[in-house]
Design goal:
Elements: H1 11-19, E1 35-39, H2 46-56, E2 61-62, E3 69-72, H3 82-85, E4 89-91, H4 94-102, E5 110-113, H5 120-129, E6 134-139, H6 142-154, E7 161-165, H7 186-189, H8 205-218, E8 230-234, H9 245-248, H10 254-260, E9 262-268, H11 277-281, H12 283-286, H13 288-296, H14 298-317, E10 319-329, H15 338-347, E11 351-353, E12 365-366, E13 373-375, H16 377-380, E14 385-392
Parallel strand pairs: 5-6, 5-9, 6-7, 9-10
Antiparallel strand pairs: 1-3, 1-4, 2-3, 7-8, 10-14, 11-14, 12-13, 13-14
Helix pairs in contact: 14-15
């Protein structure tokens, strides 16, 4: 293994890693950490797997601990393959797949993905809910959420999905379901004039103009209380069709959330991305001074931990009693992981860490708090990821 001084990382970043107890040698594994793909269930046969291998000129290794995942050598690019173009496979790191798997999503669940971009975890979640339930994807960056929309349409997974451009720390909409006051579908639309009809990308000119004006009025960041979350996509069975705008944007009281909130919530929070080798490698091109600004700047790191805590707190607020929430980051620092979890547990008596049952055969380490997990390139042959799972207890 190379010594830290031989890795080619700047001294300031090595100091950052040392302060956070991160082994710098993980950044020597870029050429040996596999690339991962997930096969859309039912879309690829064994014979087609062999065709993929011929196309990639490489063996697809089944990931035994994660269904429908395969690994490839890191230099293989999947974007030009027919299976990718036809929406049968997508790239997603196995550690990210583990975070979704930790939620233990069932058919019929109503799931909230509070930081949905870039969309691979959203696609996996939509695969898991099957033909019932719903998935609500939220992201503060409109262009990133638009990419999610493109992705779920490509993979024909949007039927039970709705996407909102919104601030995840203040988003307050619960799923449309039987116990809410709103009723979806044809019955609900009777007697109403202004209701959501089947979604189309070809909106009337006046509607597009009003939406653009609203976005310009708030800039790129949602301002709570001034602008509703912007709905940029909804599927045929997402519960939106037939609702009026007032019904869709109705804010539920705390009592209603406890009963009718989300069954599962994923908070894959914004972070410094220091656990992602490929992300850190990009600073070779972006310039290491950019890394110092984005990763090492103490003020930015402090603001990130505040953001992470607020995302976790709001995601938990929208969770129903007995539901499960997974908090994850691709940082390996305690400040963005264990410290956030400990503060959250101190301030939320109804929150309890859960064992991740599926993790018994996962190639990962225990985190710094019991029941939490850490993936890293050396241990797991994946990107770095911290995972913690909570449940909400009755008050």
């Amino acid at each position: 293994m190379e010594e830290a001084s031989e890795i080619g990382l700047p001294e300031a970043f090595l100091d950052f890693l040392k302060e956070n107890g991160v082994d710098p040698s993980i950044y020597t594994t870029a050429d040996s950490t596999p690339r991962y793909i997930r096969l859309k269930p039912g879309s690829v046969s064994e014979a087609q797997v062999q065709q993929l291998e011929a196309e990639f000129k490489s063996k697809l290794e089944k990931v035994g601990w994660l269904p429908n995942f395969y690994s490839l050598p890191p230099q293989i690019h999947i974007a030009n393959s027919m299976a990718y173009k036809e929406g049968k496979i997508y790239g997603i790191d196995a550690a990210s797949g583990a975070a979704v798997s930790a939620l233990n999503v069932f058919e019929g669940d109503h799931v909230l993905d509070l930081c949905a971009a870039p969309g691979a975890k959203l696609c996996m979640t939509l695969d898991l809910i099957g033909n019932s339930g719903s998935v609500t994807g939220v992201d503060v960056a409109r262009h990133r959420l638009a990419a999610c929309r493109t992705m779920i349409q490509k993979y024909a997974l949007g039927d039970r999905c709705r996407l909102f451009v919104a601030d995840g720390t203040t988003f307050s909409l619960i799923p449309v379901m039987e116990c809410s006051d709103s009723k979806s579908g044809e019955f609900a639309s009777k007697g109403k004039v202004d209701v959501f009809k089947e979604w189309t990308s070809k909106r009337p000119w006046k509607e597009r103009k009003n939406a653009k004006k609203a976005r310009e009025g708030i800039g790129s960041q949602l301002i709570p209380g001034i602008q509703d979350p912007e709905l940029i996509f909804y599927g045929q069975h997402s519960g939106v069709i037939g609702l009026s705008r007032t019904e869709l944007y109705k804010i539920a009281c705390d009592t209603e959330v406890l009963k009718c909130g989300y069954d599962k919530v994923l908070v894959d929070a914004e972070c410094t991305h220091d656990g992602s080798i490929r992300h850190i490698q990009k600073f070779d091109h972006w310039g290491w001074e950019t890394l110092e600004r984005r990763v090492l700047d103490a003020e930015r790191t402090d603001s990130l931990t505040v953001l992470q805590f607020r995302l976790l707190s709001n995601g938990f607020r929208l969770l129903k009693v007995g539901g499960s929430l997974v908090y994850s980051t691709c940082s390996l620092t305690a400040a963005q992981n264990e410290d956030v979890v400990e503060q959250f547990l101190r301030e939320n008596a109804s929150a309890e860490l859960q064992e991740i049952d599926a993790a018994t055969n996962w190639p990962c380490k225990s985190g710094g708090i019991p029941k939490t997990l850490r993936f890293d390139p050396l241990t797991s042959q994946t990107s770095g990821l911290f995972v913690a799972k909570f449940t909400k207890l009755a008050s």
